[in-house]
Design goal:
The protein is an alpha/beta fold. 44% of the residues lie in helices and 14% in strands. A six-stranded parallel beta sheet has the order 2-1-3-4-5-6, sandwiched between helices. β3, α2 and β4 form a beta-alpha-beta unit.
Length: 236
């Protein structure tokens, strides 16, 4: 009896999945669905994944977005026998680059100085498709969600991302059904990152989500739910 575990992205919470969940009704696994917050409770990707496995017993279908996808891939490495399916949304299997390390370090300095909102507002165009970047409701939902995490979590989670493992080394060994989704205009984890994941995992499905950027669950929740529902029904 599998449980679907939804894993939010960096500094995000259950609000990231709020508009997706209604579209999954009727297709949820027998164990139901839960949202994990391990990214706010442990210091590294490895311990986040171990914490998730410890807190959610039995077989799991892991659905992670961005940082959540990185955690899901690591959990699948640690306990492949427990993972009944993987859904990886707008994520990246590669380790941190030096350019991104410098950018994150600069952002961390702003977070520690209490200037998180300033950084987040500057980066809004990178998080959304151009047709959504000016949508006040969507962008405010995103800002409220990330600001609610607080500066300490923004610092801690960015540091965990900077030290993330190279998932490409173990993805070819994954045997569970895998769905890979990416917003067609994702600037933070470009489609090439998702295509790489899909190419590494045997028999993985890959789909681009139209008119979506990095925050695809907020931008196109019905389309994301449709892909997930089809995937879950095949698992059942």
């Amino acid at each position: 009896m599998s449980t679907l575990v939804l894993i939010p992205g960096l500094a995000c919470d259950a609000r990231m999945w709020r508009e997706v969940l209604p579209g999954l009704q009727g297709g949820l696994p027998a164990g139901g669905c839960t949202v994990s917050q391990v990214h706010s409770q442990f210091a590294s990707i490895e311990t986040m994944a171990a914490g998730l496995l410890d807190r959610h017993p039995g077989p799991l279908v892991l659905c992670g977005a961005s940082m959540g996808g990185i955690i899901a891939m690591e959990a699948a490495r640690q306990a492949p026998e427990r993972i009944a399916g993987l859904a990886l949304l707008g994520t990246n299997a590669r380790p941190e680059t030096e350019d991104m390390r410098r950018l994150r370090s600069g952002a961390i300095a702003f977070f520690e100085a209490g200037r998180a909102l300033e950084v987040l507002q500057l980066n809004l165009p990178m998080a959304f498709h151009p047709v959504h970047a000016g949508h006040a409701g969507l962008t405010q939902t995103y800002l409220d969600m990330v600001m609610a995490a607080g500066s300490a979590q923004l610092v801690a989670q960015n540091r965990a991302i900077m030290a993330r493992p190279d998932a490409r080394l173990h993805l070819p060994q994954r045997r569970c059904p895998t769905l890979v989704l990416c917003g067609e205009s994702d600037q933070l984890t470009p489609p090439e990152c998702s295509r790489e994941i899909a190419a590494l995992v045997p028999h993985a499905q890959f789909h681009l989500v139209e008119k979506a950027g990095h925050m695809l669950t907020l931008e196109q929740p019905e389309a994301v739910a449709g892909f997930l529902l089809e995937f879950l029904k095949k698992l059942a």
